[in-house]
Design brief:
Number of domains: 2
Number of helices: 4
CATH topology of the largest domain: Immunoglobulin-like
Radius of gyration: 33 Å
CATH class of the largest domain: Mainly Beta
Strand content: 35-45%
Helix content: 25-40%
Shape: elongated
């Protein structure tokens, strides 16, 4: 755009920016500057046709970019709305998810499901509280490869009942020669709600907040109960 024309309309642009408090120029502001340039140009040195066409092309690009931004914003809003509806539909369904954490509820056993990559001669489960202190160690003996249900009655090594809260059950497995066997820990529960923290959706399962990235399987909830122990 011609420098002298822009300078001649600096007061107009300055007044507009001061009044509206805008830090950027929109397509309407850009068009006003172009019209002001034509009105204030030197009759002896009119705007070159090629320069004017280039400015019109620039104006068109500004308008297209603004329209694209508006459309992207609408798409993001629609996607977020769709995601929220999708997450809400998971309430009431059973999920299988990766975790070594359990929530102890008075009068109920806490459980995790462990999966051994190979048979093991020595398997143990170490329970720690929220502070990381070991409160119970359970020896599970030799186990075959595959799934293993680990149940904890909520008592410490002195058979004292522990308070309700969050705990971790770390399952480890070894061969007779000391080689470690791979262990994956999972848990199941019914989704009771959805919470959003820092823009991320967390499923509420048994009092725990489960990231969607930890969910392995989603099933329709069935009103059945099973007892598992180790």
């Amino acid at each position: 755009m011609d420098t002298s024309a822009v300078n001649s309309t600096a007061n107009i642009a300055g007044t507009t920016a001061t009044t509206t408090g805008k830090s950027t120029l929109g397509k309407d502001d850009f068009l006003k500057l172009m019209l002001a340039q034509l009105q204030n140009q030197d009759p002896t040195q009119p705007v070159d046709n090629q320069a004017f066409v280039a400015q019109m092309a620039q104006f068109s690009s500004v308008e297209q970019l603004q329209n694209v931004n508006d459309q992207l914003g609408n798409l993001l809003l629609a996607q977020n709305s769709g995601n929220q509806m999708s997450f809400a539909s998971m309430v009431g369904k059973d999920v299988l998810f990766n975790t070594d954490g359990v929530t102890l509820v008075p009068g109920q056993a806490a459980q995790v499901q462990a999966s051994l990559a190979d048979s093991a001669d020595k398997v143990s489960a170490v329970i720690t509280n929220a502070s990381g202190k070991v409160v119970r160690t359970i020896q599970l003996g030799a186990r075959q490869a595959g799934d293993l249900a680990v149940s904890w009655d909520g008592r410490d090594d002195d058979a004292q009942a522990l308070p309700a809260g969050d705990y971790k059950i770390a399952v480890s497995a070894y061969k007779a020669n000391g080689d470690k066997v791979g262990v994956t820990e999972r848990s199941t529960g019914t989704v009771t709600g959805v919470r959003y923290e820092n823009g991320a959706a967390l499923l509420l399962v048994g009092g725990r907040k489960v990231p969607l990235s930890d969910v392995l399987e989603i099933d329709q909830h069935q009103a059945t109960s099973t007892n598992a122990g180790a």
